[in-house]
Amino acid sequence: MSDTNENGKIQIQRFSSLQQALCSLFKSSTRLVHTARISGGDINDAFRLELNDGITLFMKANKKENVSFFTAEAAGLSAIAQTGSIGTPKVLGIGTDEDRGGFSFLLLEYINSQRRTAGYWEIFAQQLADLHRADTSAFVSGGTYGFCSDNYIGAGGQINTAHHSWIRFFRDCRLEPQFRRAEGYLGTSGMKKALRLLDRLDRILTEPEYPSLLHGDLWSGNVLPGPDGRARLIDPAVSVGHAEADLAMTELFGGFAQEFYDAYQKAAPLQPGYSRRRDLYNLYHMLNHLNLFGRSYLGSVERMMTQYL
After folding, report:
1. Tell me, what DSSP letter sits at residue 43?
2. Cα(170)–Cα(165) distance, integer angstroms
3. Which run of H or of E encompasses 18?
4. How far apart are CA 288 and CA 36, in angstroms?
5. Which of 6, 151, 232, 241 could anchor a disulfide with 87, C-beta 3.0 to 4.6 Å?
6. d(CA 80, CA 248)
7. Of 140, 144, 150, 288, nearest to 208 (Cα)?
8. Res 6: pLDDT
9. Mean pLDDT of the chain, nearest integer
10. Sorting pLDDT into bands at 50, 70 and 90, what band is 9?
11. Neighbour-count burial for 79-108, b at 16+ CB within 10 Å, e otherwise
């Protein structure tokens, strides 16, 4: 587990080459004997690494100038792990490697995914509720909502400046930056609607009963069953915010099993009116998709905006 320093920054081991990482983490005689590419994400390359002592690791790789992707992901995984609430792959370290063509990398525990255990969805819901109730004071300095560093939502930058109000944080650090990036798609009339929506957020959203550490990108592709058949969270975009923002994201692309929602509601009841607020939280993700992937998401963005005006 990684610790936080006096400024709340999460400390991650950094290495100057992949070989140096392997020798430091394991033995001086450790060598990479086999590399297998793994399909999956569209931002980074992913590999299964087999070492000469039988250990298997998971590695993400990207251009060396994109090492900040991995710094942010490692910090997010480590923050979730610090709560002791739900499983994540253990962060081993990050680095850049000039010896093998020049790339950045993130080394993680390899998750040997198995079949879901009985009661998987109910256990997952309870663990997520525990994550959302965990103490967040170590993760934000100078405010209640935000995070100790900026990070990414997919390949898009995500601002985590500390705020004392969740509604102000969601306006200033989530919706408004995405609207500004999308101005070319929205046009003059769309931006006028966006500004009207930003002005009335305090009439739609509510302040949470308590701040929650959020996964931030919680859809089915970022949850997998581990060796024990229980949920593991991967690829986070963490911040401290309102728990219902995570729940909203789970419903955006198909949703989870109904047993999950029933169990979460029992463990940590949602504030009245959540269903009315849900699409406003997901507007952030649709805007991010519009900005990353193009005009095909414009119609969804416009429909979501319109229902709140």
Report:
1. S
2. 9
3. helix 18-25
4. 31
5. 232
6. 19
7. 144
8. 45
9. 94
10. low
11. bbbbbebbbbbbbbbbbbbeeeeebbbbbb
- Selecting among 217, 235, 246, 279, the annotated active-site residue is 217
| CA separation for the pair 146, 274 (Å, rounded) | 21
Residue 217 annotated among the catalytic residues of the structure: yes
Q: Is the pLDDT confidence value at 47 over 60? A: yes
- On the question of pLDDT at 153 being above 90, the answer is yes
What pLDDT is attached to residue 50? 96
**Dist. CA 143–CA 212, nearest whole Å:** 13
Nearest of 93, 70, 89 to residue 14 by alpha carbon: 93
Q: Are strands 103-109 and 91-97 parallel, antiparallel or unpaired?
A: antiparallel
pTM of the model: 0.94
Place of tokens 């490692």: 74
| 267 burial via Cβ count (<10 Å: 0-12, 13-18, 19+) | middle
